[in-house]
Amino acid sequence: MESKRVIATVGATGKQGGSLVNAILADPDSPFVVRALTRDSSSLAAKELAARGVEVVEADLDSEASLTQAFAGAYGAFVVTDYWSPLTFEQEAARPRTVREFEQATNAARAAKTAGVSHVVWSTLEDTRPHFEATGDKVPRVMGGYTAPHYDVKASADAVFAELEVPTTFMQLPFFFETLFLGMGPVRNPDGELILSIPIADGKMAVIGAADIGRTVHLMFKAADDWIGETVFIATEHVTGEGLAAMLSEAVGEKVTYRPYTWSEFRALNIPNAVGIANGLQFSVEKSDDAEMRHIEMSHNLNPRLESYKTWMGKHKAALRALNP
Fold this sequence. Notes:
With 325 residues, the chain is an alpha/beta fold. It is 46% helix and 17% strand. It contains 16 helices and 13 strands. It is globular, with a radius of gyration of 20 Å. The N and C termini lie far apart (54 Å).
């Protein structure tokens, strides 16, 4: 019997990496086993993975050597970096998160090359700057010239994987259901109304649930010849603000009103990275009709089990209601 091949999974205790762990473990016929990479193997999340029979290995994206060791012998690697990881003021001043993320992606690319990994799926994003330059919209720039740093830095790191000739699938993702609904609203206003304020206006944007990322990546590893060297945007469907509010109303059992911020209003909010987030949202809405970048039909052909936002909300009714009692 042929032994199963190893998929080294960065961020195995997070949303994206964890979803791949779950996808592989849920498939008894998978040709792969998981090697979970974590900075702290003594954490509760890491111990829970070990209890499920997962090989847990300590590795740090800030250490190329640790990644090389963790990738050794692996057939594939799923590489995820986290722009939003919390940093102290001192840490941010000494090494801005834009610099950190690019260096971490570079470390992963070099480690994969050195370890001889046969297939890397790199969770990346588009570069928003060319879009705004083409439209002539002079949106504010931040952190050294980026429009949406959490997009642009990942996109810049794509070139490292390409230049090193690492066999890579460049997987781009939209906003997660979890971010839109469990992180960005709705919020109860002083009058007791539930208000959804995500700035989509009368446009639409592509979305996906976190669990579907892992299931889709698993399929990409299974069909590596079809995906190595490809840049592909994975999304479940397009949604509108009014549509989201209507579905939320059904999920939480009371009316949710869609009253969106404008881009300028969102940029002015007193929240961290408001400008970059607003620019990223604006980019996502304005590019929603770009068929070459929003491969909805292709995504469903690749993974017919992609969950709609209606299905996702049905599974998370209790969490949604608990946020706004």
